[in-house]
């Protein structure tokens, strides 16, 4: 396990430092490989980061952006992570970035898996940067401990890029990157704010199995940088 902790006094200080770090990573990807790839997560925590990053000085036309997971809802639904990313990150200078869809037009996420996997396959990989969040149940992306699909999502030998997930403790069917897909990243960040989330993470790493707290499956297998502020 290799968890590096970067703590900041305020969420604003965290946001500024994180945006600078991501900008540098994406610039390096473009300079080194011609394109860069960024995988983000939804929720309230990254909103300020997205807004600041949207004005970063880099060639956004050479950046592919996608989501680690998505609720299986239409983009006009307020629960849509796609809507959140388009309204907060893919603005200003970052409007030139190429967004790679996880959500398809299929009625059921299981029916959209192949198309979503094909979309992701078009991106530069390993991903240059992956930003994960974590729920208070220890889930990350949409790898929920309450779901019947959690073991399939954590299977390192499944050969699948994505999985359809139906959580029992949260609304909406989901599509999520699998653990091996998440780990296929040059830089993995866990973005948390608040004392409670830090406590949950500590408890998960000390006392839980990977299926009980899926965030531990990432940290157990790859270097992860925790970006945290109170």
What does this structure look like?
With 230 residues, the protein is of the alpha/beta class. It has one domain: Rossmann fold (3-Layer(aba) Sandwich), CATH 3.40.50. It is 34% helix and 20% strand. It is built from 8 helices and 10 strands. The model has no long low-confidence stretch (mean pLDDT 97).
Portion of residues in helices? 25-40%
CATH topology: Rossmann fold
CATH-scheme architecture: 3-Layer(aba) Sandwich
User: Total helix count?
Assistant: 8
Number of strands: 10
Q: By helix and strand content, what is the structural category?
A: alpha/beta
SSE pattern: EHEHEEHEHEHEEHEHHE
Cα distance, first to last residue? 24 Å
Poorly predicted sequence stretches spanning 5 or more consecutive residues = none
Output mean pLDDT: 97
The proportion of residues in beta strands is 15-25%
Q: Profile the largest sheet.
A: 7 strands, parallel
> What's the shape?
globular
Number of domains: 1
Quick overview of this protein structure:
The chain is an alpha/beta fold and 230 residues long. It has helices spanning 11-33, 47-53, 81-88, 109-121, 150-154, 179-183, 195-207, 215-219, and strands at residues 2-7, 36-40, 63-67, 69-71, 98-99, 129-132, 162-165, 174-177, 188-193, 223-229.
Write the layout of secondary structure elements.
Blueprint: E1 2-7, H1 11-33, E2 36-40, H2 47-53, E3 63-67, E4 69-71, H3 81-88, E5 98-99, H4 109-121, E6 129-132, H5 150-154, E7 162-165, E8 174-177, H6 179-183, E9 188-193, H7 195-207, H8 215-219, E10 223-229
Parallel strand pairs: 1-10, 2-3, 2-6, 3-5, 6-9, 9-10
Antiparallel strand pairs: 4-8, 7-8
Helix pairs in contact: 1-2
